[in-house]
Amino acid sequence: MQALDIAGLSAGYGRYDVIHDISLRVERGEAVALLGPNGAGKTTVLRAIMGMIKQRRGQISVLGTDVSRMPVHLIARGHVALVPEGRRLFLDQSVEDNLRLGGLHLRRDHERTERLLESVFELFPVVERYRSRPATALSGGEQQMVAIGRMMMSDPDLMLLDEPSLGLAPLAIEDMAQALITLRERGRSILLVEQRVDLALQVCDRIYVLSGGRIVEEGNSENVNADGRALIDAYLG
Amino acid sequence: MSTFLARQSPRSRRVTIGMVVLLVAYLASTFGVANGSYGTQSLVLVAAIFAILALSLDLVAGVTGLYSLGHAGLFALGAYSTTLLNSKFGWNLFLLLPLSIAGVGIVGLVLGFLSLRVSGLYFAITTFIFTLVVVVLLSDFSFTGGLQGIAGPVFPDFPPGLAFLGSSVAWCVGLSLLVTIVIIWSIRSSPLYPVLLAIRDAEPFAAAAGVRTSVMKVGIFGLSASLAGLAGWAFSFLGFISPGQFSWTVSVNILVMVILGGINTRLGPIIGAAFVSAFPVVVSIDPFLQEVIFGLIFVVVIVFFPQGFMGLVGSLARRIRARFRPTAVVVEAVEDDASTPIAYAHLAPQEAVSTTRALPAVDEVALAAKNIVFGYNRGVLALNNVDMVVKRGNIHGLIGPNGSGKSTLVNLMSGRMSPNSGTITADGVRIERLRAPARARRGVMRTFQSAVLVRELTAQENVGIGLYSRFPGIAARSPIWPLLMGARRDSRAIAQKSIAALTSVGLSSGWATTRVADVPHGVEQLTQLAAACIAEPSILILDEPLAGLSSGEVEQVSEILRGLKRAGVTVIVVEHQTRFIFEMCDEVTVLAAGELVTTGTAADVRANERVREVYLGQ
Amino acid sequence: MLQVLLSGLSIGAVYGLVAMAFAVVFYVTRVINFATGQLLMVAIMLTAGLSKAGLPDWLSISVGLTASTAAGVVIYFVAVRPVLRFDRFSFAWLVSTLGVAIVLQSAAAIIYGPTSQGFPKLLNRDNLVIGGASITLQELLAIIVAVVAVVGFEIFRRRTLFGKVGMAISSDPEMASAIGARVTAYAVAAFAIGGLLAGAAGVLIGPITYANPYLGDTYGITGFVALMIGGIERPAAAMGGGLVLGVLSVGANTFIGSQASDWFPFVVVVVVLLLAPHGLFASGDALKRLASGIGRRTATLKGAN
Known about the structure:
The complex is a heterotrimer.
Chain A: E1 4-12, E2 17-26, E3 31-35, H1 42-50, E4 56-62, E5 65-66, H2 72-76, E6 80-83, H3 95-102, H4 110-123, H5 125-129, H6 140-152, E7 158-162, H7 170-185, E8 190-193, H8 197-203, E9 206-211, E10 214-220, H9 221-227, H10 230-236
Parallel strand pairs in A: 3-8, 3-9, 6-7, 7-8
Antiparallel strand pairs in A: 1-2, 1-4, 4-5, 9-10
Helix pairs in contact in A: 3-6
Chain B: H1 2-6, H2 10-34, H3 38-63, H4 71-87, H5 93-115, H6 121-140, E1 150-151, H7 168-189, H8 192-201, H9 203-208, H10 213-235, E2 240-241, H11 248-261, H12 268-282, H13 287-304, H14 308-323, H15 350-357, E3 365-375, E4 381-391, E5 395-399, H16 406-414, E6 421-426, E7 429-430, H17 436-441, E8 444-446, H18 459-465, H19 474-477, H20 485-504, H21 509-512, H22 521-533, E9 539-543, H23 551-566, E10 570-574, H24 578-584, E11 587-592, E12 595-600, H25 602-607, H26 609-616
Parallel strand pairs in B: 5-10, 5-11, 8-9, 9-10
Antiparallel strand pairs in B: 1-2, 3-4, 3-6, 6-7, 11-12
Chain C: H1 2-29, H2 36-52, H3 57-86, H4 93-112, E1 127-130, E2 133-136, H5 137-159, H6 161-171, H7 173-178, H8 183-209, H9 215-230, H10 235-255, H11 260-275, H12 286-303
Antiparallel strand pairs in C: 1-2
Membrane topology (chain C): Multi-pass membrane protein
GO molecular function, one term (chain C): transmembrane transporter activity
Organism (chain C): Lacisediminihabitans profunda
C-alpha cells in the first residue's frame, strides 16, 4: 500500500485549474521530490493533498484511506502533515507550544506525545534549548526546524514539505537536509517540493518534474545523477 | 446637436439618444412628483435623498473598497450646517449649497486622511465612531436644538410664472439626485473607474501604474463626503431635523441599501434606497413587527443574495447571454508568430521611437543601484552592499536562488520600498526615495511575480489602467467625463491602445473582452505584461514573467522581449529559468544570500565558478 | 475621589465585560458581532420576565445567561457562518449581525413592550463603606466578576491546550486547521463565550438600569467604544478599555456635569484613536494583518503556484 497515491488530480482556484490530471505516488518509507519552475503548480499539489483547496477532482489516498473528500482538520489528524512555504509557525507562542500543537490529535496519548517530543529534540537539539522561547525570537533556520518538528509531532503517514530551504543560510540548509535524510532512514514517507535540485537529489529517491500544472518528467535520483542533466535542464528551463 | 450626433459612431449615438430619453423621462417624473400629493412627495423625496447617500457610499464602499460608516455623520453635518447657518445667521440658502458641499467635503478629506492611516476594518470603525460623535454633539448642545432637533429652513417657492412646476423642494431634491447620478455614472464610465477598482483589489498594481493610491482614496472619500453634504443640504428642507435621523443605524441603513440593491452597480444603490425608504411606508403594520421584518431582510439578503438585487439580475442576464456566445477562446497559436509580428513599436508613434530611443549610446547607463543595503527588520540584511548597473537598451537578467534578495532588489528599484542606504538612479536622476507611482511616472514600470489584476474587469480594461499616468487629468475630469469631447477622445484612444497592446503580446481580441476572472494563468501574466508595456516605459522590470507559463507561452514572452529591445526599452528580468536568461540577456547579475556574486555577459556568468556553485547547485 | 474610582470601576467592569464579549469573538473569528449589546438585553429581559412570573432569582438568572449564550451561537450559524463561507474576507457580517440586532431588539419590544420593567434587586440592597466611599454589593460583584472573567480568560488562553489552539486559530486559521484544529468548533465556542459575557454584564447592570429592550443599543455602543479604547486585539485589553472608560465617565459626571457621561466617552475614544489608532492596550496589529489578508485575497485565490 502506498503512502500516497494520487490519480487524475486536477485542482485550482477560479474557472481554470492550476494543476491538471496529476498522478503520482509515494511508496512507504520513500522520499519523493516534486520539482518545477515557479508557478508550475507545486504548492497547489500540496495544498490539494492537504485538503486546503475546495476545488479538486480525482483520487487522493494516504495509506489506503481516501482523503480526497475529507476536511482539512481530519486529514491533518494522523494522515498528512505539512511544512508550508514560509513555515507559518504560531509566532506569538513558545517553541514547545508550537510543537505540542502539532500533536493536537494525540492530546489524550501523553506517552506518545512525549516520545515524539523526545524524537524532535533528538533530531534538533537546538530546538530543545529554545523550547520556552517565543517562536518569533528564533532565526529562520531554527524556525524551519520547529516547523519540521511540528510536522513530526502528529506522527503522520505522510510528510509534505514546501520549499523548506527557502530563505535559509547554506549551513542551515545542510542541517535541514540531514534531518530529512534521517527521517527518510527512519522509514517516514516524504513528499518534498524544492527549488534546489541538488538538495532534492540528495534527500529523495525519486523525482517528478512539474511544468505548466502537468507532470512532465519522472525518474529516480540515481538515473538523474548518472544520466546527466536532462531532467535538470528541463527543470531549469 | 445634429453635427455632434453625426460625428459619433452608431453605438455611441444610440447611447447618447438613450441618455437624452432617460433625462427627459427623469425630468418628467420629477415634474409628476412635484405636482403629486403630499404623501407621494414625502416618500419619494426621502427615497431620493437616500439614493444620493447610497450612490455616494457605493463610490467609496463598492468601487474603492472603503466601507464607510461615517455617511450618516457627514449627512448630518450638511443638514445641520445649512439649517443653523440659515436660521441663526441668516445665510442665503443658495450660498449654503456650495458651502455645505465644500465644507462637508473638507471634513471628509480630514476624516479620510485620519482613518486611512489604518485600512480595512479599522476604516469602518473610525468612520462609525465619527458618526457616533457627531450625533452625540448634536444631541447635547442646546444650540442645535438637542434631542428635539430644529426646524429646517423653508425653501423658496417658484416665482408665480413657474408655479406650474409644482413644489420647489421636489425640484431641488430631484436635481440634486440628478447631479449625483451624473457625477457617479460619469466616474463609472471614465477611465478612473478601472483605476479605483484596482485600488480596491490590486493596490500594488495600481501603484505600479503610477496611481498615487493613498491620495486617490482620500480624494474619493472627500468627493463622496461632499455628495453626502449635498444630501444633507437638500434634506434640511423636508421639515424638522433631529439627531435621531442621523444615528449610526442610518449609516448602516445606507450600507444596507447599497448591498440590497447591488454593490458596485449603477442602479443598485438607487433601487436599494427606494426599497428601504419605501418599506416602512408601504408595509404599514405594527412598527415593531415591521422592524423585525426589516432586520430579517438584512440577514436574508446578505446570506442568500450577497450580490443584491442587481447581482441577481446580472447573473440571470449573463446566463442568457452565455447561450449566444461561443465559450472557448483560444490563445493564438505560437506558430503564427511569423504572420503576427510582435509590434511593440506601433504602440509608440514611429517618429517618437526614432528620435528618443532609436540609437541609444551603447554604454549609457539607464538604471544604476549602488551600495544598496536593505533589511526587513533589525535582523538579517536582505541585501548587503549590492551594486547593479543596467545599460540602456539592454535586456539585463537578475538571477539567484530563492531568498537571495532578487525580489527585494526589484521592489527597491520599482519603489515599493526604499533602501536603508545606497543610491538608485534612473536616467541620471536619483529615485531611491520616490514612491512607486512617482517612479512609474518617470518611466520605470514593473510587473509582479504572480499577476494580481482586477478580476471583474476585462483584460482590455486592466491594460488601460497602465495608461493612467499617460493621460493627464483623468481623476479631475472623471465626474463629468462623458460630457467632455476630449475625454471621450481619450477613452477611445485608451481602448485602441489597450487592444493594440494586448495584440502585441499575442492575445487575440477574444481575450480582450473576457473578464480576467475567467482567463487562464498564462493569459493573466501576458495581460499584466501588456499593462506595463502600454505606458511605453523607458525601463521595464519584469519579476518572473515566466512563472506558470507553458513552453509555448515562454517562447511568446521571448519574442515580446526582443520586440521591446528593438523599440529601445531597457528591460530587467528576474527569472529562474536560466536557459531563457542566458539566451535573452545582454548582461546578467547574480545574487546569493543578499550579496552580489557577479555581473557580466551570459557567457561569462555561465562560466563563473561561484555562480555554478551557488545557483546551479553543481 | 475614591468614590469616583469605585463607582467608575464598577460601571467600567460592565462596559469591560461587553467589550470582552466583542473581543473574544473577534479574537477567534475576526468578526465583530454587532448584536453583542442585544445579547446583554436578552439576558436582562428574560431574567426580568421570569422573575416577574415568580421564578426564583437564581433560576431566572441561569435561564437568562443560558439564553444569551445560546443566542450567541445562533447568531454565528445564522448570520456569520454563511457569509464567511461565501467569502472568507468579506465584511458582510457587519450588516447581517446588525440585522440580527434589530430583530432581537424589536422582538423584545413586541414581547415585553418598549418601556422599562422591574428587575430583581439582587445585591443592590446592601452597601459597603470603604474609606468614606460607599459601594453596593452589586457593584462590588461587578468588579469581582470582571476580574474573574479577565484573569480566567487569560489563564485559559495561555495555559490550556484549548486556549493555545484558540491562539493558533487567531493568528493563522488555515494553518491551525492543517494541524487538526476544528476551526468551526472554536468559532462556536467564541460566540458562546461572547454571549455568556454579555449576558453576565446584563445581569450585573440590570438592578440599576431595570429591563428595557433598548438597553442593548446603549450598552452595545458603550461596550464597543470601550473596545476601541482598549484595543480590539486582545480580550484583556478590551476589559482594560472598559475600566478606563468607566472611571473617566464617572469622573466626568462628577467634575464636569451630570450629563457629561453622555458625550465624554466619545471624546475619549476620539483622542485615543488619534493618538493610538489600535487602542491603548494593543500590542499586536491584528487589524493590520486582517487588512493585508484582504489584500492577499486575490493573491491566494489565484497567485499561489
